[in-house]
Every structure is written in structure tokens, then in C-alpha cells.
Amino acid sequence: MAKILIIGNSSSGHAAVAALVHKGGHEITVVSGEPFCAYRKELLLEYIAGTKKEKELFIAGDDFYRSNKIALIQDGEVVRLDAKRRRATLKDGAKLAFDYCVIASGTKVPLPDVPGKNKDGVFSWGTLRSAQAIKQRLDITHTACLMGDPLLCKSLAGILRAKSKEVRIIASPVPVDFAADEFVEWIDSLTVSEIIGEGVELRAIKLSNGKAIGTSLVVCTGPRLASTDFLKETDIALASGFVVVDNSMRTNHERVFACGNVACFQQSPVVNKDPSVAGAEGALAVTTILTELEGSQSLCQQKS
Ligand SMILES: Cc1cc2nc3c(=O)[nH]c(=O)nc-3n(C[C@H](O)[C@H](O)[C@H](O)COP(=O)(O)OP(=O)(O)OC[C@H]3O[C@@H](n4cnc5c(N)ncnc54)[C@H](O)[C@@H]3O)c2cc1C
Question: Which of 107, 219, 227, 231 has its CA 20 to 30 A from that of 76?
């Protein structure tokens, strides 16, 4: 029985877990940076729109982990990976030993590095926790400001507009099919220089030309960066922060694999993989690991 550690529990991490469960016989530990079971991030817009209920987002429930004897560590960020000693360190200092590790830590959207970025009402897009908070915040929002990824801003603006919110989008370039109206304005030649508030409460954003826009909701949708801070002190090969893998999803360490948005082939990252592609990569990583384990098992049997 091998100890297999999966870091990240979204499309690719969950697909890796599902492939392991399907074969059975190994000790599986999943560390998730989020306080939930696996869910589908690609449905978050529909959740905000109200066309999907929260429970419809989930791919697996508590019973999946319990019945398959999977140790799921929620809200349990890996802060260091020692590939040579095959050991991961969690933010609470706990250490996890592994025989094989699958990195499925995806991407994240850091808040822009401007004064006031930590005020209440400023959110980074991409997790259920932030989507819950954004949805709640809409009750008190008249004008929302969106920045970052133009296409995501446009989709989110359409949803907020349908809820009769005014929207200001600060992003570039403007999508060719964008049509401004009295609710939605696109500002593509300026950036946000400051987030203004009273105490911790958000009141406005200040643009690079000095103009202020009153708002009680700011959502940052990009750019997306690889979630690989925990690999900084390792010699795992990275390209622009993404983990370089071969065709079987193996990194330059033979017992460490990567899949999904965090993984890149031949030095060229694809930041937003389709969830089915991310899932297929997770399953492929596990197939490679299981084939290798079966091979070493039959070698041992031949020797004895
Ligand atoms: C129509 C459409 C809409 C989409 N909308 C979105 C969207 O709104 N938001 C979005 O993010 N993607 C979206 N996607 C992209 C898609 O969901 C991703 O391609 C998919 O989520 C990739 O999954 P992943 O497993 O590689 O990584 P991710 O989904 O990024 O998940 C990585 C997980 O790893 C966890 N993690 C990161 N670092 C650590 C650590 N150190 N320790 C433990 N856990 C860690 C994170 O908390 C996260 O849960 C969309 C795709 C499509 C096709």
C-alpha cells in the first residue's frame, strides 16, 4: 500500500482522487486550501446569477471521503514540499510523508498591489468562499467595480446588470462584442491606483487619472498566477511559476506529479484549462503512478 498525497481538491485534484478510489488499495490524503469538499469552479458565475444553488456545485460530499477512507484536510494549505525526502509541511506545522505526490494546486488571483486592497468589499474571484461573500455583498451594492480578466469581467457584469446593479469595468482590452449601456461602463485606458474607505469599509476606488468612483463592491478577476509558493525552496522545475511536466504528468522528480492549471508542458502555461482537460490530466497522473506501483510489485514477486 502506497501513501499518495494530492495537493488541491478542484477539477484536477478530484479527478486524481477518483481514479485512485476506482483502483483502490492505497492510502490517500488530500490537502485542500478551501473549507469545502470538491466543487466545480466553472459554475461560480451561475451561482452568483442564482441559476445554480450552492449544493449543485459539489462533485463530492463528506460521505465520499468517509466511505473511501480518504483523509481530507480542509483549509489546510501546504507551505513546503520536500521532494527528496518525500514530505509536505502544512501551515499548522504538521508534516505528511508520501510515496507519491500529485500537485493539483491550480491558479489564484492576487489582489492588486494598491493601498486599501484589504478593505471589506474587495474580493478576488475564483473560490466558493469569495463567491458566497460577493453574493451576500450584492444586497448592499448599488455600483460594483470589476477589474482584471476582460472576458470574466464581461460575464460577471452581465449577471450584475441583470440584478439592476451599475457596473464599472477597469480592464483591457475591451472585448469586441461588448456594448456599453446606462448600467455598464468600460474603462480601458486607466488602472486602479487606490482603494478608499472609512476604516475597513470600502467606499470608492481611485483611478490613475485621479478620478474616484463610489462603490461598495470590487472584484478582481485576474491575472491568474500559478499557486506554487510552496515550491519556491524546492528544485522542482517551474516555468513562469507553473510546474513543468512530461507527457505522463511527471515533474523532474520521479515521485512528484502535477496536473490541471498548475501544470505546463514544454515551458508554455495554459492558465485556464477546461475542467475536463484538467480532470483528464489528474487521471493520467494517477494511471502512471498505479502502473509504476503494479510494475514494482510484480518485480518483487518475481524476485521472491
Ligand atoms: C466556462 C468555464 C468557466 C470557468 N470559470 C472559472 C472560475 O470562475 N474560477 C476558476 O478558478 N476557474 C474557472 N474555470 C476554470 C476551470 O474551473 C479550471 O480549469 C479548473 O478549475 C482547473 O482546476 P485545477 O484543479 O487545475 O485548479 P483550481 O481549480 O485552481 O484548484 C486548485 C485548488 O488547489 C488549492 N490549493 C492551492 N494551493 C494549495 C496549497 N498550497 N495547499 C493546498 N491546496 C492548495 C486551491 O485552494 C484550489 O482549491 C472555468 C472554466 C470554464 C470552462
Answer: 219
pLDDT tens readout for residues 131-172: 999 999 999 999 999 999 999 999 999 999 999 999 999 999
The superfamily CATH assigns to domain 122-220 is: FAD/NAD(P)-binding domain (3.50.50.60)
Ligand 1 neighbourhood includes 13 CB (under 6 angstroms): yes
CA distance 71 to 83: 21
Task: Determine whether the shortest distance from the Cβ of 107 to ligand 1 is under 6 A.
Answer: yes
Gap from CA of 179 to ligand 1 centroid (Å): 29
Condensed to tens digits (0 to 9), the pLDDT of residues 289-303 reads 999 998 876 656 666
Three-state secondary structure readout of 167-209 = EEEECCCCCCCCCCCCCEEEECCCCEEEEEEECCEEEEEEECC
269 lines ligand 1 (CB under 6 A): no
